[in-house]
Design brief:
The chain is of the alpha/beta class and about 375 residues long. It folds into two domains: about 5-175 and about 305-380, Zn peptidases (Aminopeptidase, 3-Layer(aba) Sandwich), CATH 3.40.630.10; about 175-300, 2-Layer Sandwich (Alpha-Beta Plaits). It is about 30% helix and about 25% strand. The chain contains nine helices and 16 strands. The strands form four sheets. Strands 1-2-6-3-7-15 form a six-stranded mixed β-sheet. Strands 10-11-9-12 form a four-stranded antiparallel β-sheet, with helices on one face. The longest helix is centred in the C-terminal third of the chain and has 23 residues, at about 265-290. The radius of gyration is 24 Å and the shape is elongated.
Length: about 375
Protein backbone atom coordinates (compact mmCIF):
# COMPACT_ATOMS: atom_id res chain seq x y z
CA UNK A 1 0.00 0.00 0.00
CA UNK A 2 1.37 3.39 -0.97
CA UNK A 3 1.88 5.53 2.09
CA UNK A 4 0.58 9.10 1.73
CA UNK A 5 2.88 12.02 2.41
CA UNK A 6 2.22 14.65 5.03
CA UNK A 7 1.17 17.09 2.30
CA UNK A 8 -1.28 14.60 0.80
CA UNK A 9 -2.75 13.94 4.23
CA UNK A 10 -2.93 17.67 4.95
CA UNK A 11 -5.01 18.11 1.80
CA UNK A 12 -7.44 15.47 3.07
CA UNK A 13 -7.66 17.04 6.53
CA UNK A 14 -8.14 20.60 5.26
CA UNK A 15 -11.06 19.42 3.11
CA UNK A 16 -13.08 18.77 6.26
CA UNK A 17 -14.74 22.00 7.43
CA UNK A 18 -14.17 21.49 11.14
CA UNK A 19 -14.99 25.03 12.20
CA UNK A 20 -15.81 24.70 15.89
CA UNK A 21 -19.52 25.33 15.32
CA UNK A 22 -19.66 22.16 13.16
CA UNK A 23 -19.42 18.47 13.98
CA UNK A 24 -15.96 16.95 13.64
CA UNK A 25 -17.17 13.37 13.16
CA UNK A 26 -16.22 13.34 9.49
CA UNK A 27 -12.55 13.97 10.15
CA UNK A 28 -12.61 11.59 13.13
CA UNK A 29 -14.01 8.80 10.95
CA UNK A 30 -11.34 9.47 8.32
CA UNK A 31 -8.56 9.26 10.92
CA UNK A 32 -10.08 6.11 12.45
CA UNK A 33 -10.17 4.39 9.07
CA UNK A 34 -6.62 5.49 8.29
CA UNK A 35 -5.31 4.17 11.60
CA UNK A 36 -7.24 0.91 11.21
CA UNK A 37 -5.67 0.38 7.77
CA UNK A 38 -2.30 0.40 9.53
CA UNK A 39 -3.41 -1.95 12.29
CA UNK A 40 -3.91 0.75 14.92
CA UNK A 41 -7.04 0.69 17.07
CA UNK A 42 -8.49 3.93 18.37
CA UNK A 43 -11.15 4.98 20.83
CA UNK A 44 -13.56 7.89 20.76
CA UNK A 45 -14.51 10.11 23.68
CA UNK A 46 -17.82 11.49 22.45
CA UNK A 47 -19.94 14.46 23.52
CA UNK A 48 -23.28 13.64 25.20
CA UNK A 49 -25.16 14.57 22.01
CA UNK A 50 -22.85 12.39 19.89
CA UNK A 51 -21.99 15.24 17.49
CA UNK A 52 -18.30 15.57 18.32
CA UNK A 53 -15.52 13.33 19.54
CA UNK A 54 -11.92 13.25 20.62
CA UNK A 55 -9.83 10.32 19.44
CA UNK A 56 -7.16 8.40 21.35
CA UNK A 57 -4.90 5.68 19.98
CA UNK A 58 -1.81 3.80 21.14
CA UNK A 59 0.96 2.40 18.96
CA UNK A 60 3.28 0.05 20.82
CA UNK A 61 3.05 -1.82 24.12
CA UNK A 62 -0.25 -1.33 25.91
CA UNK A 63 1.13 -1.75 29.43
CA UNK A 64 3.73 1.05 29.30
CA UNK A 65 3.16 4.80 29.64
CA UNK A 66 4.14 6.52 26.43
CA UNK A 67 4.48 9.82 24.60
CA UNK A 68 1.24 11.55 23.63
CA UNK A 69 1.23 13.54 20.40
CA UNK A 70 -1.62 15.95 20.95
CA UNK A 71 -3.50 18.16 18.54
CA UNK A 72 -6.97 19.57 17.95
CA UNK A 73 -9.14 18.88 14.91
CA UNK A 74 -11.19 22.09 14.94
CA UNK A 75 -10.41 25.37 13.20
CA UNK A 76 -11.58 28.97 13.48
CA UNK A 77 -14.19 30.41 11.09
CA UNK A 78 -13.40 31.96 7.72
CA UNK A 79 -16.44 34.25 7.96
CA UNK A 80 -15.67 37.81 6.90
CA UNK A 81 -12.20 36.95 5.61
CA UNK A 82 -11.17 37.47 1.98
CA UNK A 83 -9.40 34.39 0.69
CA UNK A 84 -7.66 34.12 -2.68
CA UNK A 85 -8.45 30.40 -2.83
CA UNK A 86 -11.05 28.02 -1.38
CA UNK A 87 -10.02 27.76 2.31
CA UNK A 88 -11.05 24.09 2.40
CA UNK A 89 -9.13 23.05 -0.72
CA UNK A 90 -5.37 22.93 -0.13
CA UNK A 91 -3.50 25.24 -2.50
CA UNK A 92 0.23 24.96 -3.15
CA UNK A 93 2.34 27.90 -4.27
CA UNK A 94 6.02 28.79 -3.90
CA UNK A 95 6.67 26.28 -1.13
CA UNK A 96 3.61 27.36 0.85
CA UNK A 97 0.47 25.35 1.55
CA UNK A 98 -2.68 27.46 1.86
CA UNK A 99 -5.89 26.46 3.62
CA UNK A 100 -7.81 26.88 6.84
CA UNK A 101 -6.02 25.01 9.62
CA UNK A 102 -2.79 24.37 7.72
CA UNK A 103 -0.85 26.01 10.55
CA UNK A 104 -3.35 25.70 13.39
CA UNK A 105 -3.05 22.80 13.54
CA UNK A 106 -3.78 20.27 10.83
CA UNK A 107 -0.19 20.48 9.63
CA UNK A 108 0.91 18.77 12.82
CA UNK A 109 -1.87 16.19 12.58
CA UNK A 110 -0.85 15.42 9.00
CA UNK A 111 2.78 14.87 10.01
CA UNK A 112 1.73 12.57 12.85
CA UNK A 113 -0.56 10.53 10.58
CA UNK A 114 2.14 10.32 7.90
CA UNK A 115 4.47 8.88 10.57
CA UNK A 116 1.98 6.21 11.68
CA UNK A 117 3.16 3.51 9.22
CA UNK A 118 6.74 3.97 10.45
CA UNK A 119 5.60 3.91 14.10
CA UNK A 120 3.61 0.73 13.47
CA UNK A 121 6.55 -1.10 11.86
CA UNK A 122 8.91 -0.42 14.74
CA UNK A 123 9.40 -2.40 17.91
CA UNK A 124 8.63 0.46 20.23
CA UNK A 125 9.69 0.11 23.83
CA UNK A 126 7.87 3.32 24.71
CA UNK A 127 4.45 3.57 23.05
CA UNK A 128 3.32 6.57 21.07
CA UNK A 129 -0.18 7.79 21.86
CA UNK A 130 -2.26 9.96 19.56
CA UNK A 131 -4.60 12.34 21.39
CA UNK A 132 -6.75 14.40 19.01
CA UNK A 133 -9.36 16.74 20.49
CA UNK A 134 -12.21 19.02 19.40
CA UNK A 135 -13.27 22.58 20.29
CA UNK A 136 -9.84 23.80 21.34
CA UNK A 137 -10.52 27.07 19.57
CA UNK A 138 -13.43 27.96 21.85
CA UNK A 139 -11.60 27.43 25.12
CA UNK A 140 -9.89 24.02 25.10
CA UNK A 141 -13.28 22.43 25.68
CA UNK A 142 -12.99 19.04 23.99
CA UNK A 143 -9.74 17.83 25.50
CA UNK A 144 -11.11 17.92 29.05
CA UNK A 145 -13.40 14.85 28.85
CA UNK A 146 -10.56 12.90 27.22
CA UNK A 147 -8.16 13.91 29.99
CA UNK A 148 -10.78 12.79 32.48
CA UNK A 149 -10.50 9.27 31.06
CA UNK A 150 -6.72 9.02 31.51
CA UNK A 151 -5.81 6.34 34.01
CA UNK A 152 -9.24 4.76 33.60
CA UNK A 153 -10.58 3.92 30.15
CA UNK A 154 -7.47 5.39 28.52
CA UNK A 155 -3.81 4.95 29.52
CA UNK A 156 -2.10 7.91 31.18
CA UNK A 157 0.85 9.02 29.01
CA UNK A 158 4.32 9.48 30.45
CA UNK A 159 4.61 12.86 28.73
CA UNK A 160 2.89 14.90 26.04
CA UNK A 161 4.01 16.98 23.07
CA UNK A 162 1.38 19.55 22.10
CA UNK A 163 1.89 20.27 18.40
CA UNK A 164 0.71 23.88 18.25
CA UNK A 165 2.69 26.09 15.85
CA UNK A 166 6.04 27.08 17.34
CA UNK A 167 8.25 26.94 14.24
CA UNK A 168 9.52 23.61 15.63
CA UNK A 169 11.10 25.34 18.60
CA UNK A 170 10.43 24.33 22.19
CA UNK A 171 7.86 26.33 24.17
CA UNK A 172 7.91 25.57 27.89
CA UNK A 173 5.57 28.33 29.14
CA UNK A 174 2.50 30.22 27.99
CA UNK A 175 -0.22 32.47 29.33
CA UNK A 176 -3.69 31.19 30.13
CA UNK A 177 -6.97 33.00 29.44
CA UNK A 178 -9.68 33.29 32.08
CA UNK A 179 -13.00 34.71 30.89
CA UNK A 180 -15.86 36.09 32.98
CA UNK A 181 -19.39 37.28 32.33
CA UNK A 182 -20.94 39.93 34.59
CA UNK A 183 -24.73 40.27 34.50
CA UNK A 184 -26.25 43.35 36.13
CA UNK A 185 -29.96 43.52 36.89
CA UNK A 186 -31.58 46.79 37.94
CA UNK A 187 -35.17 47.99 37.56
CA UNK A 188 -36.78 49.49 34.47
CA UNK A 189 -38.81 52.68 34.53
CA UNK A 190 -39.99 55.38 32.17
CA UNK A 191 -37.00 57.64 31.56
CA UNK A 192 -39.05 60.66 32.70
CA UNK A 193 -39.33 58.99 36.09
CA UNK A 194 -35.73 57.84 36.35
CA UNK A 195 -35.56 57.82 40.20
CA UNK A 196 -38.09 54.97 40.20
CA UNK A 197 -35.66 52.75 38.34
CA UNK A 198 -32.14 51.42 38.77
CA UNK A 199 -29.98 51.99 35.70
CA UNK A 200 -27.99 48.81 35.09
CA UNK A 201 -25.71 50.57 32.62
CA UNK A 202 -24.72 53.13 35.25
CA UNK A 203 -23.49 50.37 37.54
CA UNK A 204 -21.84 48.62 34.62
CA UNK A 205 -19.87 51.84 34.17
CA UNK A 206 -18.68 51.70 37.76
CA UNK A 207 -17.51 48.11 37.26
CA UNK A 208 -15.76 49.12 34.05
CA UNK A 209 -13.83 51.68 36.08
CA UNK A 210 -12.76 48.94 38.49
CA UNK A 211 -11.63 46.73 35.61
CA UNK A 212 -9.60 49.60 34.16
CA UNK A 213 -7.84 49.94 37.51
CA UNK A 214 -7.19 46.20 37.69
CA UNK A 215 -5.71 46.29 34.20
CA UNK A 216 -3.27 48.99 35.29
CA UNK A 217 -2.33 47.00 38.41
CA UNK A 218 -1.51 43.97 36.26
CA UNK A 219 0.63 46.11 33.96
CA UNK A 220 2.57 47.38 36.98
CA UNK A 221 3.49 43.90 38.21
CA UNK A 222 7.16 42.84 37.95
CA UNK A 223 7.62 42.00 34.27
CA UNK A 224 8.56 38.60 32.89
CA UNK A 225 10.52 39.47 29.76
CA UNK A 226 10.08 35.97 28.31
CA UNK A 227 6.53 37.00 27.39
CA UNK A 228 5.25 39.63 24.97
CA UNK A 229 3.77 41.68 26.55
CA UNK A 230 5.72 40.88 29.74
CA UNK A 231 2.74 41.20 32.10
CA UNK A 232 -0.77 39.73 32.43
CA UNK A 233 -3.35 41.54 30.33
CA UNK A 234 -6.99 42.37 31.07
CA UNK A 235 -9.45 43.31 28.36
CA UNK A 236 -13.15 44.11 28.38
CA UNK A 237 -14.36 42.06 25.42
CA UNK A 238 -18.15 42.45 25.48
CA UNK A 239 -20.54 45.19 26.56
CA UNK A 240 -24.31 45.35 26.13
CA UNK A 241 -27.39 46.79 27.80
CA UNK A 242 -30.56 48.79 27.42
CA UNK A 243 -33.59 48.43 25.16
CA UNK A 244 -34.79 51.92 24.18
CA UNK A 245 -33.84 55.56 24.73
CA UNK A 246 -36.91 56.24 26.89
CA UNK A 247 -36.52 53.26 29.26
CA UNK A 248 -34.21 53.10 32.27
CA UNK A 249 -32.06 50.05 31.42
CA UNK A 250 -32.98 47.01 33.51
CA UNK A 251 -30.01 44.90 32.46
CA UNK A 252 -26.41 45.13 31.29
CA UNK A 253 -23.70 42.61 30.55
CA UNK A 254 -19.91 42.84 30.59
CA UNK A 255 -17.48 40.23 29.34
CA UNK A 256 -13.82 40.44 30.27
CA UNK A 257 -10.71 38.33 29.91
CA UNK A 258 -7.41 38.03 31.72
CA UNK A 259 -4.41 36.46 30.00
CA UNK A 260 -2.61 35.19 33.07
CA UNK A 261 1.07 34.47 33.49
CA UNK A 262 1.96 31.26 35.30
CA UNK A 263 1.52 31.84 39.02
CA UNK A 264 -1.15 34.55 38.78
CA UNK A 265 -4.13 33.78 41.01
CA UNK A 266 -7.08 34.59 38.78
CA UNK A 267 -9.49 33.81 41.62
CA UNK A 268 -8.17 36.92 43.40
CA UNK A 269 -9.27 39.06 40.45
CA UNK A 270 -12.75 37.58 40.59
CA UNK A 271 -12.93 38.27 44.34
CA UNK A 272 -12.03 41.93 43.74
CA UNK A 273 -14.91 42.28 41.29
CA UNK A 274 -17.39 40.48 43.55
CA UNK A 275 -16.34 42.51 46.60
CA UNK A 276 -16.69 45.76 44.64
CA UNK A 277 -20.16 44.81 43.44
CA UNK A 278 -21.31 43.84 46.90
CA UNK A 279 -19.85 46.85 48.71
CA UNK A 280 -20.07 49.67 46.16
CA UNK A 281 -23.01 48.83 43.92
CA UNK A 282 -25.64 46.51 45.36
CA UNK A 283 -26.48 48.39 48.61
CA UNK A 284 -27.29 51.52 46.64
CA UNK A 285 -29.18 49.60 43.94
CA UNK A 286 -31.29 47.70 46.48
CA UNK A 287 -32.43 50.84 48.27
CA UNK A 288 -34.66 51.36 45.21
CA UNK A 289 -34.94 47.81 43.87
CA UNK A 290 -34.55 44.97 46.40
CA UNK A 291 -34.50 42.54 43.47
CA UNK A 292 -31.36 44.11 41.98
CA UNK A 293 -28.51 41.66 41.41
CA UNK A 294 -24.99 41.38 40.03
CA UNK A 295 -23.58 37.99 39.09
CA UNK A 296 -19.95 37.34 38.23
CA UNK A 297 -19.44 34.03 36.46
CA UNK A 298 -16.22 32.40 35.24
CA UNK A 299 -17.22 31.00 31.85
CA UNK A 300 -13.90 29.54 30.70
CA UNK A 301 -10.44 29.05 32.16
CA UNK A 302 -7.44 27.64 30.31
CA UNK A 303 -4.59 27.11 32.71
CA UNK A 304 -1.32 28.98 32.19
CA UNK A 305 1.50 26.62 31.43
CA UNK A 306 4.98 26.27 32.85
CA UNK A 307 6.74 23.01 32.09
CA UNK A 308 7.59 20.73 34.99
CA UNK A 309 11.26 21.44 35.67
CA UNK A 310 11.78 17.92 37.03
CA UNK A 311 10.34 16.20 33.96
CA UNK A 312 12.31 14.66 31.10
CA UNK A 313 10.04 16.15 28.45
CA UNK A 314 11.80 19.48 27.77
CA UNK A 315 15.36 18.04 27.73
CA UNK A 316 14.17 15.17 25.54
CA UNK A 317 12.54 17.37 22.90
CA UNK A 318 15.46 19.80 22.91
CA UNK A 319 17.87 16.91 22.37
CA UNK A 320 15.84 15.40 19.55
CA UNK A 321 15.67 18.80 17.84
CA UNK A 322 19.33 19.62 18.42
CA UNK A 323 18.40 22.83 20.22
CA UNK A 324 19.39 24.34 23.57
CA UNK A 325 16.89 27.18 24.07
CA UNK A 326 13.25 27.32 25.12
CA UNK A 327 10.64 30.03 24.56
CA UNK A 328 7.48 31.41 26.18
CA UNK A 329 4.41 32.58 24.25
CA UNK A 330 1.28 34.59 25.00
CA UNK A 331 -1.21 32.34 23.22
CA UNK A 332 -2.77 29.37 25.00
CA UNK A 333 -2.70 25.63 24.30
CA UNK A 334 -3.89 22.43 25.92
CA UNK A 335 -0.49 21.91 27.56
CA UNK A 336 -1.50 23.29 30.96
CA UNK A 337 -4.53 21.00 31.04
CA UNK A 338 -2.41 17.93 30.22
CA UNK A 339 0.06 18.88 32.91
CA UNK A 340 -2.73 19.47 35.43
CA UNK A 341 -3.93 15.94 34.58
CA UNK A 342 -0.55 14.54 35.60
CA UNK A 343 1.10 14.43 32.16
CA UNK A 344 4.29 16.58 31.93
CA UNK A 345 4.07 18.54 28.68
CA UNK A 346 5.83 20.73 26.18
CA UNK A 347 4.61 22.68 23.13
CA UNK A 348 6.34 22.09 19.80
CA UNK A 349 4.90 21.97 16.31
CA UNK A 350 5.26 23.16 12.71
CA UNK A 351 4.25 26.58 11.45
CA UNK A 352 4.12 30.01 13.05
CA UNK A 353 1.32 31.55 15.09
CA UNK A 354 1.48 34.71 12.93
CA UNK A 355 -0.04 32.72 10.06
CA UNK A 356 -2.79 31.13 12.17
CA UNK A 357 -6.41 32.37 12.04
CA UNK A 358 -5.68 34.70 9.11
CA UNK A 359 -7.15 34.93 5.62
CA UNK A 360 -4.97 32.85 3.30
CA UNK A 361 -3.58 30.89 6.27
CA UNK A 362 -0.51 28.97 5.18
CA UNK A 363 2.30 26.75 6.33
CA UNK A 364 5.67 26.24 4.65
CA UNK A 365 6.26 22.75 3.27
CA UNK A 366 9.68 22.95 4.93
CA UNK A 367 7.96 23.13 8.33
CA UNK A 368 6.25 19.81 7.66
CA UNK A 369 9.61 18.33 6.67
CA UNK A 370 11.17 19.50 9.94
CA UNK A 371 8.29 18.06 11.94
CA UNK A 372 8.44 14.71 10.14
CA UNK A 373 12.19 14.48 10.78
CA UNK A 374 11.59 15.18 14.46
CA UNK A 375 8.93 12.45 14.67
CA UNK A 376 11.34 9.97 13.11
CA UNK A 377 13.94 10.81 15.77
CA UNK A 378 11.26 10.49 18.45
CA UNK A 379 10.50 7.00 17.12
CA UNK A 380 14.19 6.13 17.27
CA UNK A 381 14.20 7.13 20.94
CA UNK A 382 10.98 5.22 21.66
CA UNK A 383 12.45 2.15 20.00
CA UNK A 384 15.46 2.36 22.28
CA UNK A 385 18.04 3.05 19.60
Amino acid sequence: MTEPTAIELLARLVAFDTTSRNSNLGIVAFIEDYLSAHGVASERVTTPDGQKASLFATIGPADVAGVALSGHTDVVPVDGQRWDTDPFDLARRDGRLYGRGTTDMKGFLACVLAAVPDFARRRLEVPIHLAFSYDEEIGCVGVRPMLGELGARLPRPRLAIIGEPTGMTVVDAHKGPARWQIDITGRSAHSSMAPLGVNAITYAGRILGLLDGLERELMDRPPDQRFDPPYPTLQVTELSGGTASNIVPVSARIGFEVRALPGLEVQAIERRVVDFAEARCLPEMRRVAPEAAISVRLVNHVLPFAADAASEVVPLVLRLLGQNRTFAVSYATEAGLFQDAGVPSVVCGPGHISEAHTANEWIAASELEKCSAFLARLADWAEGR
